## 1
Amino acid sequence: MGHGPMAGAAMPVEKSLDFWPSARRLARRLAPERLRVLAVLTLALVSVTLTALGPRLLGHATNIIFAGVIGKNIPAGVSVSQAEAAARAAGNTNFADMLASIHVVPGVGIDFTALRQVLTLVMALYLAASTLSWLQGYLLNDVVQASVYRLRADVEDKLHRLPLGFFDRQPRGELLSRVTNDVDNISQTLQQSLSQLLTSLLSVIGVVTMMVLISPLLAAIALVSIPASMLVTALIAKRSQPQFIATWTHTGTLNAQIEEAYTGHDLVKVFGRRREIEAIFEATNAELYEASFAAQFISGIIMPTLMFIGNLNYVAIAVVGGLRVATGSLSLGDVQAFIQYSRQFTQPLTQIASMANLLQSGVASAERVFELLDADEQVPDTDRPVRAGVRRGRVALDRVSFRYLPDQPLIEDLSMLAEPGHTVAIVGPTGAGKTTLVNLIMRFYEIDSGRITLDGVDITAMPRAELRRQVGMVLQDTWLFGGTIRDNIAYGRPGATEAEILAAAEATYVDRFVRALPHGYDTVIDEEGSNISTGERQLITIARAFLADPSLLILDEATSSVDTRTELLVQRAMAALRTERTSFVIAHRLSTIRDADLILVMQSGRIVEQGTHAGLLAAEGAYFRLYSAQFAGAVVEEERPAPVADQHR
Amino acid sequence: MLIRLLRRFLRPYRAALAAVVALQMLATMASLYLPSLNADIIDNGVAKGDTHYIVATGAWMLLVTLVQITCSIVAVYLGARSAMRFGRDVRAAIFHRVGQFCAREVNGFGAPSLITRNTNDVQQVQMLVVTSATMMIAAPVMSIGGVIMALREDVGLSWLMMVAVPVLLTAIGLIVSRMVPQFRAMQSRIDVVNRVLREQISGIRVVRAFVREPHETARFAVANAELTRTALRAGRLMVLIFPTVMLVLNASSVAVLWFGAGRVDSGQMQIGALTAFLAYLLQILMAVMMATFMAIMIPRASVCADRIGEVLDTESSLRPPSEPVMTLPGRGELELRGVSFHYPGASEPVLHDISFTVRAGQTTAIIGATGSGKSTLLSLVPRLIDVTAGSVLVDGIDVRAIEPDLLWSRIGLVPQRAYLFSGTVASNLRYGNPAATDAELWEALSVAQARDFVAAMPGQLEAPIAQGGSNVSGGQRQRLSIARALVRKPQICLFDDAFSALDLATDARLRAALGPLTEQAAVLIVAQRVSTIIDADQIIVLEGGRVVGLGRHDELVQTCPAYAEIVSSQLGLDAA
């Protein structure tokens, strides 16, 4: 029942670039798993170190092969220094320098024993690294799933703590998109990117360490590419992040449009609006396309650019390394290892970059989910609840004022008293605030001033659950959840027995039509309720409230879609139910109103008159006018409901 | 299904995708060329100590690198564009298809599932397309290129690739095939989670009124736990892939060195070639690994594609006529001739052999018990459902032969559930007649007895309306819904229990005001209150889907016991 203008209702579309705070907050959500996270980190560290050692050892293997090749070319018997001198004499100083730098045994080929030893060691290392990496992935998967489970649970929990006004303002499809599409996207992001991100980051560190150990000069060249890569990534990501946010915002809008179109499906068709609806859809769909294309393209540039930087780096190492080997200051095996390292180091960088779009998209979603989690909650239940002495159902409103929007008063300075066991009828023109009034008694909304008491206790001084447990409510909206008829009736009271459910169903004439259904009480009602009629739905909602057996009953147009014969029967049952209870009834039926112990006449949020039927008629005030306008002509015997010229309201 | 979906919706972007393949191929060849140049540096430069050669080759490498980045970026541009257009087109196709559906199909899938399919499922397939188009296309190019380049270096070692690649593919295939059923289960679990959340949001008032938050949280926790369990299982399989690939990769490089050493020792291979071979092998395996990441996405995407395909392949049960009647005489006459309707599989028909005629300017009312088939009867006229026997005729022509848009343009429908669309009062009123002037809107509001409260709303016609009309009261919603139908100036008016939320006086005023407006129209009213229909030219009393009384009020009171009973029940309710 919110009165929020739709345009301003949705959360702001354009957001500042909150990548890091949201990313950090997402990371913090892993905190409850910190032991496992620690294990994951340790395992990853060891596994990466082992993997990082690999190329170094493979470099040794290359050196052994290289030494063998060179050694074979030098005749046996010639010492290395002789060969070196010979080379210098031949003017080939570079080759001489190189010879001096490696371990060559002249005349002997490749030392296969040594090679086997090295390679076996490498293989063992790799095997260990893979096993550890698997363990790490296994644990991380557990961590991610546990975190996403908690995120979903938190979101669901939050829904129950949000004030009703929030749901009135937010288009349902948009909200749904947040709790489904966005949460799903986060889950996928974490699952797909976290493990790789972690390994990649550690790999970079490990590889850099190894490179420094081999050749500080080449390492320095390679290291230039790190800040360069980071800068490039940052620059590009800054441009793609808003596009990712736009992507998910448009997804939400589109979801809302789809939701609305599918919910009002028949109307769209019969009113010939399909083309227009599709045009609106096309427009948002095109916007979504533009944003997602921009996001994917801009972030997609990161990878080739980093590959470019990596290749530049590769070229530089090949050239500078080559020159240094040629001058003998570096062994070929080292250069080869180095190139492998620089490849290994570019690869994780590129991988981080390729994760960038996934990550950015995930963080954009996280931001939207956090926005929901941060939304203002309803006033928390009191921590010092006051217990009502006797539950009798005495309801008093004392100078209550309430408005949804600051400039639109809805309930103004309203006072009333409902004695235990009394029936209070609320009458008045549509839009007078009748439904709002009963919503306030349910504490669906917080009043702005005044107080509402139940059996003398301010309703804000008791937990909401306790208040609502005493109230049975039949709403205008006949919402049933997707489940069997039995479950829907049982919704009114957890733990109700089959006999109690059947009794409630019989009393409210649900039993009669349910028996005619092929599956009886096991008939599954779909959410839109196409398989039973609106009147039947209404009867089920009445049965639901009947079963709840409350001390206070609120009936808001409870039988408007039920045929009058059934209504009469239901009303008799309800009357029996009401004798013990205080009840508030919003209805058009004269009989209900006339028999009420108290009639409240509402107009524009105020009670303009209250009293009994006879008393109010005698007073010839607002009720009298309303009565003569509404009911004088309603009696069937009078044949014609004479239209009343004076449309007094 | 996935393939069919891709083939159908990627067809318009064939040229762009071909360009992506060509560019990626070029880029990949460039990056494959680099190790070969590096081998040159070692063999011709380093080994001979020729520093000049090293520098010159270095410059060449630089140029190759430039070519590579240019190709890559253009490829990413085209790839991302095609993939996102693919997503856009699929979303539009689903939306369009659902627009043609009847209530039966919409309820068959369930609106929530249709929504998930229209956004989330498309998202999954689109993600597969975008990653393949921007990154993964390179994978096969890279492996084939790598094989060729490696073979150029040394044919003798190529058997290593013959072993490594199949081993890798088999390992990945084994894991991925186990993942598919898990993902299928996962997607349906996501559906459940979404359904519970949607119910909680749409039924939030009931949940709170009955203090069932703990129950709902428990219900959600079950759905959440089941989804998590499945995701865990899928994830545990997924994490096997990376270490397996790494192991095969690393074992291959060890093998290259071991077997390569033998060949180098026997002089069959140069040492530079060995280094290059190693680089190529790594490149091939890296490509296979990249393809693996795509393989990880395939199971979920194919499940989603199936779900999308289901929607796209479903034909609307509303068959458009093959030779539609394009013009109607416009008399505004409605006739039901021997109409029966039963739901497929149901034992009892909802409506049984119903015949009556409503002429222009006449009002026919339908009254009957809850569940007697009144609303069903009404929905036969605009073909929200089709008769199973007999026929519904508008101006003497079977509605199933009339062009649907033409048929609908003649009908003003006020449904039982007054659903308004988010927007403004005016946008809702113009829903069926966008060309209506403000004066016409006000006129309709007057008739619907909604003028006063709309005039009192801030912004009047421009006052905002929330989705479903949740920001106006039930009575107001119903009157706006009536006004919306009147703005169309329909020849056939269908009111489905449209006055239930109105008080009697408003009801009476509304019907009085309706008279002049519907002089040329056939009016069919479903109602609960006798007072609403007392003036009707014809009253049909329905009981259990059969007509048990037909005539005017005065006659029926005398002749029809069921009607007399209804009348007396209302005396009990409303009369003194």
## 2
Amino acid sequence: MAYFDHANSSPVDERVIQAMLPYFREFYGTAGLELGHSKDIAALTGLEEARKTVAKSLNADPRAIVFTSGVTESNNMAIRGVAVANKGSGRHIITTPIETQSVLQSCKRLEGAGYEISMLDVDEYGLIDLNQLKKTIRDDTILISVQHANGEIGTIQPVEEIAEIAVKKDIMFHTDATHTYMRVPIDTESFKANLISFDAHRIHGPKGIGVLYIRRKTRIHRVLEGGDEERRLRPGIENIPAAVGMAKAIEIWEPNENEHVLNLRKYLEKKLKESLTGFTITGHPENRAPHIFSMVVDHVEGESMLVHLDMLGYSISTGSACSSKTLRGSHVLRAIGLPPEVSHGSVRVSFSRYNTETEIDGFVEELCGTVERLREFSPLTSGVYFANEEEDNHHHDLPEDDW
Amino acid sequence: MGYSDKVIEHFRNPKNMGKMENPDGVGTVGNPVCGDMMKIYIKVEDGKIVDAKIETFGCVAAIATSSMTTEMAIGMTIEEAKELSRQEVAEALDGLPPQKMHCSNLAADALHKAIEDYESRQT
């Protein structure tokens, strides 16, 4: 048995839970006033210490750290906040089709409000082309938003180069670092992004807390209205226990952790090459988040693999349309050019400090058995494709939501 | 996951899966682009379906409905099998998640096509 879905969410480390508990039981004040009562002062101290820890992890000033409820909020704030603050100088935004939904939907919403969005192409690995980026920049471009690493296929974008291009043109650059934070070094002294989004629950911290790093002099407006919290950029009482938990998760991160997950990923690749047939690794072979392995398996469907492996005690994920409520397949796999019948067989395995090679041995054995079993009765195995030429309208005949 | 115990049971131990030698009728529905494809084979004696086999590419619901449809069809007369609906298959599995009702529950359609194929061979 093993949990291999750490890119989705990770178990909270016991040390994190212990660090958080006093902020529920004793230090339950808020951090709004510097001259409040002792409960508030204790809460404020905890929050500000957490802010310093986060800042240190990026080699940044604590004033650049704004706590949010998670990456979705950080991304909304970065994109919509920059759009509002810069509308005087332009309404053109550049992003990629493989961003997470909170980036894509924020852009879509702006598009409906008179902004223009340019989508960069990505190659078979999911990489953007810097020359195309340079050509896409216009006088009225106000923001470039390109993720650091992709959550489904792990590919790391050349964000340092993008930041340099953006700085030269005085364009704001935002990157979603959800899948690289703590796993790939980020030093904001040398890496000139204006805005960086990340959260705690993928690094063994709690859910409900994230950060938007905002470089000094970044032109951004708040998107929520309210009080003075977080330097008025993000009003609302901070989630102090979670911020303290996030800081603890950062503090206990071991220097060899990223090497550990990288070794596990390479070990899995080696084992699969020895024992599984008919699969292709997706994403960049080298330049990728160390803990994310992804592939497509021929002739079997991802949800079936996921549920079958789950019965055997292994948690993985898939980008197959069949596993989503809307039945829309992964936009990432589509963007890197995989046809739907191939992306239906996608599998992602993501590691953490808790995983071992022994777990991978057991997993590979069960995965091979699962695939073999499903292939036994798959009509695709014998090469029967597209036997039915008729329109299959019912496939897109989704029921209306009752609510 | 939102699947009933019965769906999971049929997914875990699907019945009548695989190819059939010398079938009396064959029906194929779906395509792999949509994520579900089924090919059903039937054997008919004296107007009754005496055996059925199915090959399925697809999700848990697709595999479970394939298994259930063939189980229900075996023993039915051709006329009864023509009336077997997707709804009845879903009900026999104690229901399916709403988004799966339309997309993965295709085995009954495949069965009807196999019957058409069988009937066309009789003339």
